[in-house]
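Can't paste images in this forum, so I'm doing it all in text. The chain is below; anyone willing to post the predicted structure tokens underneath?
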Amino acid sequence: MTPALTVLTTGPLTTVQDTGRLGQASLGIGRSGSCDRSSAGLANRLVGNPPDAALLEVTLGGLAVRAENELTLVTTGARCAGATAHNGPVRLRAGQELRLGPPTSGLRTYLAVRGGIDVPAVLGSRSTDLLSGLGPAVVRDGDVLPVGSPRLPVPDLDLAPVPDPPGGEVTVRVLPGPRADWFGDAGWARLTEQPWTVTSESNRIGLRLDGEPLARLREGELPSEGMVRGALQVPPSGLPVLFLADHPVTGGYPVIGYVADDPLRSDVDRCAQLRPGQTVRFGRAG
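Text version of the structure:
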């Protein structure tokens, strides 16, 4: 019998994610993948999966699953109430369940199964892209998710832990973007000197922020330009949108700055854990 995980309830939103569809932006295909790459990578390491193994990204808890065979699982990212497998793998016997309550802080929890979630890949990735519709469907109650065969040993110790997401205000590093001159020194000061509140309209595409709007120094249309994760795009409302995993490949609004997305210390990953109502400040990088 093929190892499998049955989804009893999904919570608000559960999707399958991996490292995404790399190198296809020229074809109009975004990368997608896990919003908090650091936490997803940690989950895969803890169960001996390769970095690109597919796992579950759970938004605001509520997921319940049942092991149909003996499976090794772990959760990382936002720590959920009742999560006995957080940052440390546990073994479930056939028929045992794992239930995630609401997280105490943070937004997204990653559930990795040893062997990886073995759904069909689309254009080289098992990631669900909510903007384009590529990849597997959003996980639903009753889904039976096949689990692949383990390829690596389970480590005795993870040497690169990822801290749990903080509550309260978060400060991240920001660099000037290609259209910072559209806002001038006053616009940059307004961006970096006030707290911005995450709104309930935020999703995997981007964080929508509320605060004192940024005023343009120039008007007019901007030709559509390439966009990357971490870009701070400013629509006509003057309220920035911070692009996350499912961001569009191009956009026609000016980008005032970029949140630092270093491989070893990604502030975009930290932003992916912000809940509606939390505040974020942008501090100059360097």
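The chain is about 10% helix and 25% strand. The CA atoms of residues 48 and 155 lie 6 Å apart.
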